[in-house]
Design brief:
This protein is an alpha+beta fold. It contains four helices and five strands. The protein folds into two domains: 100 residues, Double Stranded RNA Binding Domain (2-Layer Sandwich); 31 residues. The strands form two sheets. The chain has a three-stranded antiparallel beta sheet with strand order 3-4-5, covered by helices on one side. The chain has a two-stranded antiparallel sheet with strand order 1-2. It is elongated, with a radius of gyration of 27 Å.
């Protein structure tokens, strides 16, 4: 991690929203070889980034945000409570680092949004009638599939 002021990893705090932030200490980076095309360069240089965020050990995010982030992370969440993001879209380490961090921050921003509570509603009288009419019509179609002698049932 560098001391460059334009580097998002340089400061101790990384802002998620206006009031929320994560700490640099909760992040770990590993550089691995990227897959896919790239010629000889892809076999020599480790440009892909594996960013690990310790969600379980984080103390700056509220519990409800952490639980929503865990749900949004899905299979990227490990049993130890870490979110692992792999970034290998770009050919340089720096771009892949920025990409992985931005994807993590976007996931955390989406986790800060509280879901709108669902209001229970009753079906309208018209929708009930349409459903029953459709059932009757479907029943008539099925009834007509019988043998020719069974029409008077």
């Amino acid at each position: 991690m560098s001391d460059d002021p334009s580097d998002p990893f340089a400061s101790k705090r990384i802002p998620v929203t206006g009031s929320l932030h994560i700490l640099k200490d909760d992040l770990t980076e590993d550089f691995v070889r990227a897959s896919g095309p790239g010629g000889q360069n892809v076999n020599k240089v480790s440009t892909a980034v594996q960013l690990r965020f310790n969600l379980a050990g984080n103390e700056t995010l509220p519990q409800d945000v952490k639980s929503r982030a865990a749900r949004l992370a899905g299979s990227r969440l490990t049993l130890h409570g870490e979110i692992i993001l792999q970034a290998d879209r770009f050919r340089t380490r720096e771009r892949n680092r920025e990409d992985a961090l931005e994807r993590l921050l976007e996931l955390l921003r989406r986790a800060t949004e509280k879901p709108k509570p669902r209001k229970a509603t009753k079906p309208t009288l018209g929708s009930k009638k349409r459903r029953l009419d459709a059932k009757k019509q479907r029943g008539q179609i099925k009834k007509m599939r019988g043998r020719a002698g069974k029409l008077d049932d």
